[in-house]
Amino acid sequence: MSDSSNNFSDEIRCLQFGQADFEERLSALLAWESVSDTGVADAVAGILQNVKDRGDQAVLEYTERFDRLAVDSMDALEVPAERLQQALQGLPAEQRSALEFAASRVRQYHAHQKQDSWQYTEPDGTVLGQKISPIEKVGIYVPGGKASYPSSVLMNAIPAKVAGVEELIMVVPTPGGEINEMVFAAAAIAGVDRVFTIGGAQAVAALAYGTQTVPKVDKIVGPGNIYVATAKRSVFGEVAIDMIAGPSEILIICDGETDPDWIAMDLFSQAEHDEQAQSILVSTDADFIARVKVSIDKLLPGLERSDIARQSLRDRGAMILVENLEQAIAVSNRIAPEHLELSIADPESILPSIKHAGAIFMGRHTAEALGDYCAGPNHVLPTSGTARFSSPLGVYDFQKRSSLIMCSEGGASELGKTASVLARGESLEAHARSAEYRIKS
């Protein structure tokens, strides 16, 4: 191991809460523009319009151009249900067992989120309530090729099926014909109805507008690269979307009593995603931060994706020293992280003070990686500070709510008096007279 490897951790930013420039340095650390490349936006706009105008033919041309797959018809890009089952049956027993175990936990957790219709009757007989209905058609985007994530299939498809979505259409690129059998197997386990081996902005366009072969959906969910993210943002309004996801993030609050190797590896678990991922440690113990840095230098060279993790930690990682847990909580609430690990003795004691986080992992033994795969809660989480106003993907994202109003004769009469006054106050005569017709003389 070279000296430069031993000292890599010295290149990671170190901040101290309360220093004069702390907020300025923290803001610079967190800065990230989601989808701002005008060249990408222009390219995506052209793809979307072409698919909207020409349907299947445009999708076929883009698939040949970007994924190096030349086929004569969209039929060749749709994966039969039998092929998905074949992928499942052909998996090594250990992989199949892991996928099925994870799916069962994800399904069990999300079953608790399902909302039911409700109504109540007022004394005069007026009935008010809410009708819960599943979204009819949902499209799931799944990254393909080398960046294949069967866990993403489970996390997006299972909540949709628990919600009662009638038709679930998955798109997954297979660049150069490269297929991930676990992705196909996960689709079979999760109950995906149709699968197309298409990707990029053209796949988003096909789902949003519909083509001769690909059904038009009502909502599109799932992660993708900057072209996919830009396309999703562009078609919002034509269809619903889940979110515009930024790079993966982890914030660890540690009191200095956890094994530093564990903490270093937890930081790596996000840093290895991509170069823009963000891993931050907040601790009350300066000596512990120094021990974590030693662990980073010891463990990083052995990682398969060490180059990616190294750049991520250098460019966007940080160690933040605070005086107490109150300051640590303040830092966490300022950042509003995607993943928050509370690696402290009594995590539940500070839980009421945590205002913003996508997912909270409590205790020294709860690695964030467990949530990515099999704990049960969804791993599709708000990033880039959007946990201030957003929530994890869930069953509720695949259900719609309709208000129910049924007035009795007496109820319509009484409500009509108030509606009349308010409508005339807004100079909407027809509104007022419509309500007044129902007022009993």
Protein described:
The protein has 3 domains: 3-32 and 246-375, Nitrogenase molybdenum iron protein domain (Rossmann fold, 3-Layer(aba) Sandwich); 38-116 and 135-241, 3-Layer(aba) Sandwich (Rossmann fold); 407-436, no CATH class. The chain is an alpha/beta fold and 441 residues long. It has 18 helices and 15 strands. The protein is 45% helix and 16% strand. A 6-stranded parallel β-sheet has the order 1-12-11-10-13-14, with helices on both faces. It is globular, with a radius of gyration of 26 Å. Helix 7 (150-163) links the parallel strand 5 and strand 6 (167-171). Residues 1-5 have low confidence and may be disordered.
Task: Annotate the secondary structure layout.
Blueprint: H1 3-6, E1 13-16, H2 22-30, H3 38-54, H4 56-67, E2 78-79, H5 81-90, H6 93-111, E3 118-121, E4 127-134, E5 137-141, H7 150-163, E6 167-171, H8 181-190, E7 194-196, H9 200-209, E8 219-221, H10 226-235, E9 240-241, E10 249-254, H11 260-271, E11 278-283, H12 286-299, H13 306-316, E12 318-321, H14 325-335, E13 339-343, H15 347-350, E14 359-362, H16 368-373, E15 399-406, H17 409-425, H18 429-436
Parallel strand pairs: 1-12, 5-6, 5-8, 6-7, 8-9, 10-11, 10-13, 11-12, 13-14
Antiparallel strand pairs: 2-7, 3-4, 4-15
Helix pairs in contact: 3-4, 3-9, 3-10, 4-9, 5-8, 6-7, 6-8, 7-8, 9-10, 11-12, 17-18
